[in-house]
Specification:
Elements: H1 10-28, H2 32-39, H3 43-50, H4 58-67, H5 73-86, H6 101-109, E1 112-117, H7 128-138, H8 144-157, H9 159-162, E2 169-175, H10 176-180, H11 186-200, E3 205-210, E4 224-228, E5 237-240, E6 247-249, H12 252-268, H13 272-284
Parallel strand pairs: 1-2, 2-3
Antiparallel strand pairs: 1-4, 4-5, 5-6
Helix pairs in contact: 1-5, 2-3, 4-5, 7-8, 11-13
InterPro entries: Cro/C1-type_HTH (IPR001387), DUF5753 (IPR043917), Lambda_DNA-bd_dom_sf (IPR010982)
Protein name: Helix-turn-helix transcriptional regulator
Domain HTH cro/C1-type: 21-75
Length: 289
């Protein structure tokens, strides 16, 4: 079993534990369906345990190790300790039920993030006023308290961008429609675009605008993000946000396809200097209210 660092958050701990359990199953030559039959549980439970989308109890680990005939007690104890730690709470749990908590856990531990955003400014680069307007517009039936909670979480996530010691390496390709969509009013838009330019000057942040004039491009199917992690044991994840559920892709072939698409987007987008000039030009179009 690979050595695992102790300073990881519960979401990443679940992923690593799931990867180890999948490896043990494959070494035993068993399918998820066969394991489920042995333990009298559903196949979907085994799949969720292995992909890290479900919390893993120490009993789950004990039962699975029994099925896989793991004889080394040190391995069993190590996996059970990982299960215990995976059930701890991350900082985001203090805000209550957050629909995209799995993503937040991954983002918190990621070393780099590549995102394509066709509709709005990426959340990590939003001002508070812009974020409030975006959330309120996207969730018209949400209560004021729920909107406030989501915005607070978004602002808390930005600490990775502002962190001078361990910043998140962010590369954002933003469609012109996201820069021109009037969210919250002219003053809010101007302030948002001005902040976007300021963020783009940070050494670990790259922003590229994708003008309408570029025509059709590989991002026409919608927003997505690619998360990479500092530990080689953690596979790269492609995140696709949905209305009622999110999709996480980890297969090497899927990650490769989205990575190639992103390279095409970066090639078609304006370079960083052109992007700043482009955004500043749009900002000037908004006169203060």
């Amino acid at each position: 079993m690979r050595a695992v660092a102790s300073n990881v958050n519960p979401t990443v701990r679940r992923r690593r534990l799931g990867q180890e359990l999948r490896r043990l199953r494959e070494q035993k030559g068993m399918t998820a369906e066969e394991v489920a039959e042995r333990l009298l549980v559903s196949q979907s439970k085994i799949s969720r345990l292995e992909n890290g989308r479900r919390s893993i109890s120490q009993r789950d680990v004990r039962d699975l190790c029994g099925v896989y005939e793991v004889e080394d007690r040190r391995i069993v104890e190590s996996l059970m300790q990982m299960a215990k730690e995976s059930r701890q709470q991350g900082w985001w749990h203090a805000f209550g039920d957050i629909p995209y908590s799995v993503y937040i856990g991954l983002e918190t531990d990621a070393a780099s993030l590549r995102v394509y955003e066709p509709q709005v400014v990426p959340g990590l680069l939003q001002t508070q006023a812009y974020a409030e307007a975006v959330v309120a517009g996207a969730l018209p039936e949400a209560s004021a308290a729920d909107i406030e909670k989501r915005v607070k979480v978004r602002m808390r996530r930005q600490e990775r961008i502002r962190d001078t010691k361990n910043p998140l390496r962010l590369w954002a390709v933003i469609d012109e429609s996201a820069l021109r969509r009037l969210v919250g009013g002219k003053q809010i838009m101007r302030e948002q675009l001005e902040q976007l330019v300021e963020f783009s000057r940070l050494p670990h942040v790259t922003v590229q605008a994708l003008p309408f004039a570029m025509g059709a491009h590989p991002g026409v199917n919608g927003q997505y993000a690619i998360l990479e992690f500092p530990d080689a044991a953690d596979s790269t994840v492609v995140y696709l946000e949905g209305v009622t559920s999110d999709l996480y892709l980890e297969k090497a072939t899927d990650v490769q396809k989205y990575s190639v698409m992103y390279e095409h987007l970066r090639a078609q987008a304006l370079n960083t200097e052109q992007t700043r000039e482009f955004i500043e030009g749009i900002a000037k179009e908004y006169t203060r209210d």
